[in-house]
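Let us practice reading a record.
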Amino acid sequence: MIRRLNFFGNPNDGVYAVVTEKFAIVPRKLQKRTRKSIESILEVPVVGTDIGQSRLLGVLAAANSNGICV
């Protein structure tokens, strides 16, 4: 099944989120509905946070199964 999500009205989700096979990190102010969708689609826990008061987490961080680099 294909589902479309918009983060803050922008279809470029990778700019706002960091996702691995174990977790997803999304901006704190992301809608609860969108968080729940991510959680159910990817079957990973979703953590809401910001990096340096920015919600562009996908630009500012990289992650894999071994850890995260900010």
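A brief commentary: Residues 13-65 form one domain.
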